[in-house]
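Good day; I would like, with your permission, to put a structural problem before you. What I wish to show you is a protein chain and, alongside it, a tokenised description of its three-dimensional fold. Please examine both parts with care and let me know of anything in them that strikes you as inconsistent. Thank you for your consideration; the sequence and its tokens are set out here:

***
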Amino acid sequence: MLELLPEFTSKPEALLAVCAFGYLAGSIPFGIIFSNILGLGDLRKVGSGNIGATNVLRTGNKLAAFLTLLFDFSKGICAVLLVRQFFGEDAVQVSAFSALMGHCFPIWLRFRGGKGVATFLGVTIALSFIIGIICCFVWLFVAVLRKMSSLASLTSSASAPIAAIFLGQPNTIILLTLLICVVFFRHKQNIDRIFKGIEPKIGKIE
């Protein structure tokens, strides 16, 4: 029988602590931080109003967009690797999920955060390097082929549990599926536009 969850070895208080850590780490709004540092104005009044790297790029500042992408990606990695140093895989998965929730629904921004793709990829690559790399390549392939960031993001995230099945890592499937649900929820407007055939290409307002 496939083990779809890691063995639960951590104490409840430890799980609560890593949940808080993951959420707080994920909730750091790097897009807004770098936009303010570089004098780009209020990011929430630019383009789609999103705080992620794609919307930062609409300010015309590629450095700010790159830094946002890098740091949003890195906080996903940190939420997994730092917890893994001190706790078991059950705590790691709690922290991973909390980090994505923190990014998408940060309390500091009235729960209006990013769409979670960079943080999702960071979490995934830290959980399993090979699965993360597969997701990154899927994103790149779809982005180049269809020129749609949202479609690339949705396809990339959906490929994660499929890769986990084929690579024999079933204990990540439930977590990855939950992460996908969050990413898809944050992209619900994009999904609607994709089905209507009006989703903008990369570089346009989405």
